[in-house]
Each structure stands twice: as structure tokens, then as C-alpha cells.
């Protein structure tokens, strides 16, 4: 089964996503911010990265850009609860830098799982 890296600073959201994905049979790696997420990705490459946008240390847009520089074919889904300029603006930027799908929090479980399956099918 595919390996998914979750980069999310909110421990409760990260734990919920991890539990949901493990129940679906995915191997799940996790990181609390983009800086740690890059390290985890370099040590154990994932088939898909799900990253939050607003995080300490290294935020999501910067993380997406770096992941795409390291591995241009990296599959990424971006999530956001918002910020000073609103979730939609951040997520539109994430899409421009390579996120295949974007979701605002709270995330619909079924929609996320469908997006994951669709992204993982892509060559």
C-alpha cells in the first residue's frame, strides 16, 4: 500500500488524519511542520504528501516548493484552515506551485479519500 506523509502542526488534526489513513491501509509518516517534513521525506520518500499551509518553522507553500524541487513528480495535497488572508487564497497559491488537490478544514473524509485514490493512480 502507498506511503503518505502528513505535515500538520495541529497534533489533533494530524492524529485524526493518520488514524483515518491507516484504517484505509496506508502506511503513514508524520511531521509537525515543513522543516521536519522535508527531513522525513528525504529519509523515507512518500508516494503522497498531505501538507497544511499555515505552520511554524516552515509553512506549507515553502514546503511544497522545496518538495517539488527535490522531487518534481511529488504528489501533494494541501489543506488549510485559513489565516490572515483566508484559506482559499493560500490554497490557490498551493495549487499554482503543484498541489494536485486542496481542501479547507474541516475536511470531508470521503472527498479526501477519493482525492488520495485519484492522485495515487496518476503516473
From TrEMBL:
InterPro entries: Bact_response_regulator, CheY-like_superfamily, Sig_transdc_resp-reg_receiver. PROSITE patterns: RESPONSE_REGULATORY. Keywords: Phosphoprotein. GO terms for biological process: phosphorelay signal transduction system. The modification 4-aspartylphosphate is found at residue 52. The keyword Phosphoprotein applies. Residues 3-120 form the Response regulatory domain. PANTHER family: CHEY SUBFAMILY, STRESS RESPONSE REGULATOR PROTEIN 1. This is Two component system response regulator. It comes from Desulfonema magnum.
